[in-house]
Amino acid sequence: MEETISLKELFETLKKRLLLIVSITLIAAIVSGVVSFFFLTPIYQASTQILVNQKKSDQSMYSPGDVQTNLQLISTYNAIITSPRILDIVAENPDINMTVAQLKSKITVGSEKDSQVVNLSVQDPNAKMAAKIANETAEVFKDEIPKIMNTNVENVSILAKADVSENPAPIKPRPLLNVAIAIVVGLMAGVGLAFLLEYFNNTIKNEQDVEKLLGLPILGVIATIEDQKLEDIKARRAARNTKVRGETLGS
């Protein structure tokens, strides 16, 4: 016999397990909030932008071919910025005091599509240190890239230096976002667990379960009478019998 589940049964299951669903959701939100606010280390980001051009020819303006060549070299510049040739010099700065591997793990280099501007971003638990690493890396790259490219690059401009605002905001963690995600995940987990518990619950709960189990049609149902209603029925019946006996004796 094919089993079907109605929307009413689904809502009944959710209603019966509502406390479980709410509890799991609240626990997930509380745990996420506590971890985000008190255990995760805030990470700050500082960014700088670098414009790199090849050595100019005698022409007063760049030709489209020059611009296209610069665009093709952007990926090369991105790799050079995080290479040991650059980071070894950055690591020698006494104010930074990090290894090349540590620096490389903090630096992200990228560029917009069809743009000659290289974006250099640094993430660190210390906002001032992130800005210092970004600026130092950009300066070292500016000094070293002409030597690395055999003097084919002479026009390196730092468009925007990394700086630190008065009240810098960390880019991660984001406690409110984490709590929101935890609420959604907790709600999904609670609903899933509620249906799972209902699926493994083999007890007979109503007449439909009896029909499904035995495969026989239901001919009748004995209604359930609450104790209070039963007492009221007995009291009314006793009063009626007393009245009938009184009328009989009076006649």
Automatic annotation (TrEMBL):
Its main location: membrane. GO terms for molecular function: protein tyrosine kinase activity. It is found in: Cell membrane. Signal peptide: none annotated. InterPro entries: Bact_polysacc_biosynth/exp (IPR050445), GNVR (IPR032807), LPS_length_determ_N (IPR003856). It is a multi-pass membrane protein. One of its GO terms (cellular component) is plasma membrane. Residues 3-92 form the Polysaccharide chain length determinant N-terminal domain. Keywords: Cell membrane, Membrane, Transmembrane, Transmembrane helix. The chain crosses the membrane at residues 18-40, 176-197. Residues 150-196 form the Tyrosine-protein kinase G-rich domain. Belongs to the CpsC/CapA family. This is Lipopolysaccharide biosynthesis protein. It comes from Neobacillus bataviensis LMG 21833. The lineage of its organism: Bacteria, Bacillati, Bacillota, Bacilli, Bacillales.
